[in-house]
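[#protein-structures] MJ: dropping Aminotransferase class I/classII large domain-containing protein here for a structure pass
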Amino acid sequence: MDIGSISKKWNFEGNEWLNASAVSVRAVFNKLKENINNEDKRPSIYMCRVDPTENPLFRTTLIASDAIASAVQSYNFNSYPPTLGLPDATRAIADYLSSDLPYQLSPDNVFLTIGGTQAIDIILPVLARPGANILLPRPGYPQYESRANCCRLEVRHFDLLPERGWEVDLDSLEAVADENTVAMVLINPSNPCGNVFTHQHLERVAEAARKLGIFLISDEVYAHIAFGTNPFVPMAVFSSIVPVITIGSLSKRWFVPGWRFGWIATCDPNGILKQTGILTLINSYLEITTDPPTIIQAAVPEILKRTKEEFYEENLNIMREGANIFYDRCMEIPCLKCPHKPEGAMSVMVQINISQLEGITDDVDFCVKLAKEESVLLLPGVSVGLKNWLRISFAVEPSALEDGLTRIKAFCLRHVKMS
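AK: finished. structure tokens for Aminotransferase class I/classII large domain-containing protein:
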């Protein structure tokens, strides 16, 4: 029997909002991988996503792996965790974050998540009342836009200025906000730009948000990965000016993205988030979502308290070396321009001069043909909001980084227009 003949019309169909929202670094990476020439015997070089653990140079501290092993071997953490997380874990994170602040966070200010991604997936639906909009940086991290579209929260963009070290264009920020704007997102240190905002600029951003009557979502997944002239300053330093919700993670500073452990911290000494009901809504959302594994929660206090400063310093030196190699070699590549030497995080934005290239139509075409011809994967800038730019990760083993940049140069020379 033909099942299609039973009914002339089925009463279900897919959610088109999901398809329209499915923009991610992972999706673009998978598509680009399909274009690699399998006959190329050279190793493929992935400079399009930030997962340094693929290289043996980047290893987490033994303190972290020992803490996980101890939690597993104790048999004390095989149960479901409490909805709000293990108390020792939330207390440890509150203390860790407070060491950089002029006041002490309470464990009640901390909510545990499955990485920074789930933190985004919790906060944005909490804000998605009918008619509301959120301000996102351009360029930015695509998960924010994808999640906002999925929960029908209107997105508006403010610009980051490459000629000013990727500072926020405060004029564009105020121009796109209105009475339905609920929050803005700032990523510091910046993914994808590689800059670290100064204390003075962050204060100006806080004052602009206060003027607009919105709160700040400060994405600090790359917190303390700052190796240039600007030290990392957490946005919560300015939470007496404007309420701040901080997103953090173990992923980058400890090189454990696969552990999927992060947090939301509400930094609000004036109690505005509580008064407006945001805290209640976050708690309500946590009741219907998944928790981070109990064994990782149990390990967090040891990881945060016992990791040695030498581990952090060594990793900053590695990142600094990668940033230097990248910037110096990029200067030698025709048709590419890096307007700002990376000073933090693990990626950088590079502009393509399409007019100087033969047979290359845009940044997507550039990346597809580079994958086919040189087995090097870069992220097209349109994925993060800037057409005809590239987001490039320098968190690559130095010899592979050198090789990748050599291949990119060869590709550009092959396609450069002859005068």
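MJ: nice. The mean pLDDT is 93.
AK: one more thing. DSSP finds 14 helices and 14 strands in the chain.
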